[in-house]
Design brief:
Blueprint lengths: L4 E7 L3 H12 L3 E7 L3 H10 L4 E3 L2 H5 L4 E4 L3 H11 L8 E4 L5 H10 L6 E2 L1 E3 L20 E5 L6 H13 L3 E5 L1 H26 L11 H7 L6 H10 L1 H24 L2 H19 L1
Parallel strand pairs: 1-2, 1-4, 2-3, 4-5, 5-6, 8-9
Antiparallel strand pairs: 7-8
Length: 284
């Protein structure tokens, strides 16, 4: 058994936070787990599932003697949460997050938290279109990739502890610079989610098209069923990289449209051939 944290505080007890609590308990890594949230209902659900042992609405009070703090809020709330706990958290505590944008969060921590940093940004690429603690599972992080911040004035022991945390939960850890993270993930996660949403809107013509919907459409649009406010926050906290990715996507589609309009069969076929090869390279 690896490191055990006598007191763990999880701020945000939705799917990711609830699954983290269950995973830590199954791995024997947590003594007592405190859950923090703004609404009582998700906290009650997390308590009933055993993902947390006690509930609080006060982040500052909940982190005061915690050994491990994980911020599992939507991306737009991570920075204000870090501000709210900075002066309350123990100097020896390990602090990380699970947000899918990293540059602004890590830069803010670098500018405002004591050095060397005990906060280390994380992004476990886990989850689904489902949300809420009722969908939490102890194995959510198994077989996933977790991107962990490198660079900056990070306490080496704190970073080693964060790496150990995600590995113990079954993830493969990849080191990444926060700015590079946001550029890459915009193209592999954020823009694809926007595209899936746009495809759903395109198909919803006002008529009942369900008899004409096959597995291809379902596969391509499954992620569009995600929580809208989460994706609102992702778009607004990773704006430059997402806008750049969207611009590239639009140019690609415009080129295809022009080839179709002109009847350029070679260009149309090339579009699909290059796409097939690209998918094999990036998705295996």
């Amino acid at each position: 058994m690896g490191r055990v944290y006598p007191i763990v505080t999880i701020i945000g007890t939705g799917l990711l936070g609830g699954s983290l609590g269950l995973g830590l308990k199954r791995a024997g890594m947590a003594g007592r787990i405190r859950g923090v949230g703004r609404r009582q209902s998700p906290l009650d659900t997390a308590l009933a599932l055993g993902a947390i042992d006690e509930a609080s609405s006060d982040p500052g009070a909940a982190v005061r003697d915690a050994d491990l703090v994980v911020v599992c809020t939507p991306a737009a709330l991570v920075i204000p949460t870090l501000d709210s706990i900075r002066d309350a958290v123990s100097s020896g505590a390990i602090v990380t997050d699970v947000a899918s944008t990293k540059a602004d969060i890590c830069a803010h921590a670098e500018a405002t938290w004591p050095k060397p940093l005990r906060f280390v940004g994380s992004h476990p690429m886990a989850g689904s279109e489902k949300f809420g603690p009722e969908h939490s599972t102890a194995d959510l992080y198994e077989g996933t990739v977790c991107l962990v911040e490198e660079g900056g004035d990070i306490d080496p022991a704190a970073r080693a502890a964060v790496l150990e945390l995600w590995i113990a939960l079954g993830a493969t850890v990849v080191d990444i610079d926060p700015a590079a993270h946001d550029q890459v993930v915009a193209r592999t996660s954020h823009v694809p989610h926007i595209a899936a949403t746009a495809l759903s809107l395109l198909a919803d013509s006002g008529e009942d098209v369900r008899p004409f919907v096959g597995n291809g459409f379902r596969d391509a649009t499954r992620i569009a069923d995600g929580r809208p406010e989460i994706w609102r926050d992702i778009c607004l906290t990773n704006s430059p990289a997402i806008r750049g990715g969207l611009a590239e996507l639009i140019r690609s589609l415009q080129a295809l449209s022009a080839a179709i309009e002109s009847g350029d069969s070679a260009q149309v076929e090339s579009f699909f051939e290059r796409g097939r090869e690209a998918r094999r390279r990036v998705a295996g």
